[in-house]
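re: ur question from earlier - yeah i can do the single chain one, its not a big deal. heres the input i used so u can compare w yours
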Amino acid sequence: MTKMMQAAVVTAFGKPLDIQQVPIPTPGPGEILIKTEACGVCHTDLHAANGDWPVKPTPPFIPGHEGIGIVVALGAGVTIVKMGDRVGVPWLYSACGHCEHCLSAWETVCAEAEFGGYTKNGGFAEYIVANPNYVAHIPAGLSPQEAAPLICAGITTYKGLKETEARPGDWVAISGAGGLGHLAIQYAKAMGFKVCAVDIDEGKLAHATRLGADLVVNARDPGAIEAVRSGTGGGAHGVLITAPSIDAFQQGVAMTRKHGTCALVGLPKGEFPVPLFDVVANCVTIRGSFVGTRQDMAEALAFAADGKVRADIELQPLSAINDIFERLEHGKVAARVVIDFTGGAAKAQTSTTQAKQPQPA
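and the output i got, formated as tokens:
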């Protein structure tokens, strides 16, 4: 008899995900099977489910690229992980390993790369098949729920900050202080940068201050660009755009100091015009940054294991995925939602409900 698992499946673009019972996959040669403990929810999952990007996944598929769990089965020939290891299945599911990009530690742009929850089924399911050569190894002391956002949002922001080439003591401006940005602020402080946080939400800016931001600016302020430029003494040495907003991209370039670098990690739909004269005359670099390598992953997780970075998480059950997507679509998620497969989300909801019940006198 075929063993089944619960999964949230994209059956058609733009439609609600379908919670289904599907067969538990069997790992083939060189693959592993992971029993999922937690999976973060990323804005990219929403883009995937809507088919927003030029290269689209093929329905039906299971989203989720922040899955953390325990290795419960090994395919033939697997030696790099062992039964019982806690690992994560990130966006970079696999790459060829032998092209010029892989050989120079840029496997994220490998032409043969596969992506978790996109070209390969992901973590919105009770079990995940993965390539053991590309899983994240979760340090002891990090719970699966804490680790889940770090294997996408964490590595993405950490790598993006590295790509600005800012040095300790330099100013970095982080545009978007939410799910990615609140992690970027913490990484930036741990890396020795002075931080300016930019957002349209005063609540997120207040949170940014609590996380250590040295300067906060509301992007809706007509003088926002000048506020960043004056507050940082001429513009930020590095600017990291995490917000999925064309306006944020345009602002970010203008907030960049002469000879500085603006790194783009947000992925809004469409294109944005670049002020060519300013970019050329001020020697500004505009650079895309796409997630990060396996070494970047190890470094990003090490910061968290040392207690220097911590994701703000909200636990939810898999059954809530469509509500989570609705909130993501309308900017109503303060930081990171994590789907909990261990029962913790249900317990948390029960505790909250009980606390709201009238108590006997």
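The chain is about 30% helix and 25% strand. not sure if urs matches, ping me
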